[in-house]
Structure formats: C-alpha cells, structure tokens
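Notes, p. 3: input format for complexes.
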Amino acid sequence: MGEAVLQVGELDVWFGPLQAVRKLSFALQPGEVVGLVGPNGAGKSTTLLTIMGMNQPTSGSVRLGDRELVGLSPETIAQLGIALVPEGRRIYAEFTVAENLRLGTFGRRQADGLEADLAWVNSLFPIVDEFRDRPAGQLSGGQQQQLAIARALIARPQILLLDEPSLGLAPTIVDGLFDALAEIRKRGVTILMVEQRAQLTAEFADRSLVMRGGEIVLTLAGDEPLDPAQIASAYFGA
Ligand SMILES: Nc1ncnc2c1ncn2[C@@H]1O[C@H](COP(=O)(O)OP(=O)(O)OP(=O)(O)O)[C@@H](O)[C@H]1O
Ligand SMILES: [Mg+2]
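Output follows (238 residues plus magnesium ion):
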C-alpha cells in the first residue's frame, strides 16, 4: 500500500448514551473506490458526516494527507478537497437547477478552471445544463440525484463521499448512476460510497467495508465472488 489519501483512525462517535461509531479505522488509497455497506443504524452516515466535520467525534482522527480534519468546519474541509452528497440529496426545490449547482462552487479550492469543470459536469449529466432554469423540485428523483452529484463535483473534490445515491431510484436509473460513477472514477477521484445495494456496490468498488454496530465486521474484495452466507452473518450477526 502506498500513501493513503484519507486515514480514519480509532474514531469514536457518541450521541448521548449511544455509541454510533466504535474505534473505526480504515484508509483510502488515491483513486480507490470503497463501498460502505451494512444494516440500518450501522453508523455509515455518521462516518461520512464525521469525516465532513458535521459530527464531532469524542476521540480518534481523520487525516487528509498530513492534515488533521477533526475540529475543522465543514466549509474548511470542503475547501481542502472533500465533497459529500448527503443522504436525501438536500436539493433546494424552489431554487433553479443552476442555483443549486452554484452552491457547490463554495467548496472550490481554486478560482480558475470553473468553465472546464462545468463543461465536464454538463457532459456527465446533460440534464443539469438542459434544465438549468427550472426549479429543482420539478426534476425526477434520478435527476435530482444527478444534480446533487454534479453540485459535489463542481467543487472539484479529491475525495467524493456519497450517502446512498441509489436510494429510491428505479433499476434502470441506478444503472445510469453507476455508469456516471465509473466516469468519475476514471478522473482519479477517490470515492467512499455508502449503499444499501451491497452486491452491486461490492462488484463496482475496489473493496467494500461491511459495518455493523459502529464497527467494520467484514471487508469484501471487489474481484472475489460474494458469499451470501458470510454477508448475511456480517449484516445480522452470528
Ligand atoms: N444526530 C443524531 N442524534 C442521535 N442519534 C443519532 C444521530 N445520528 C445518528 N444517530 C444514531 O446513530 C446510529 C447510527 O446512525 P447512522 O445514521 O450513522 O446509521 P446508518 O448506517 O447510516 O443507517 P441507515 O442505513 O439507516 O442510513 C443509529 O442508532 C442512529 O439512530
Ligand atoms: Mg445512513
């Protein structure tokens, strides 16, 4: 293994008396696609939100290269090169598509190159340009998810965090979504994606981490056939 781009170390996150994440450690290599799967309440969203600075851990570290991110604001973390596509997309229904997209530019590290990044995002998701003057609330669920990913990419992140991007989408739309993720991966963006679709994700990702009870209970290699019994026991406990 080379130099990790992101290193999560011994992370503990508590909500009152409830521990959502327990001594969680993992690393992302540059350009790697890692899946994060597991049952409801496993701590997947909490992990992404903590990386993004939206939750504070009680202990542990999140390192981007040599830089410690714990304690930094979400805005600073965005400007350092991490973008989150949150659960439920967080699209502003009454704002136009273009206005929603523009929100992503606050996370940009450099002022130049915006035109080229817009062109790339528009080629990846043509509806973002085609429907730019429409209220975003008029888009379908799949189109809103495209907009949410486009908004994250316009910040030109080094690392893209996705929280259940396929949730609520029809199977054909999910296929298109994964095609877009494959294009994003080709650009060298490191991806950490939370997904309910464990099988699809495990096949797509270089590696998938199965989380339960705030811990990683199993790691699935992308090129190995899945053992349904092993996954079931990881999900539900022995
Ligand atoms: N802001 C919060 N306040 C209190 N408890 C929380 C908060 N956020 C999450 N939790 C709790 O922490 C645990 C982990 O939640 P989390 O949302 O990270 O799970 P998840 O793996 O993303 O689940 P899902 O698949 O349902 O999205 C759950 O028990 C949840 O109820
Ligand atoms: Mg979640």
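The chain has a mean pLDDT of 93.
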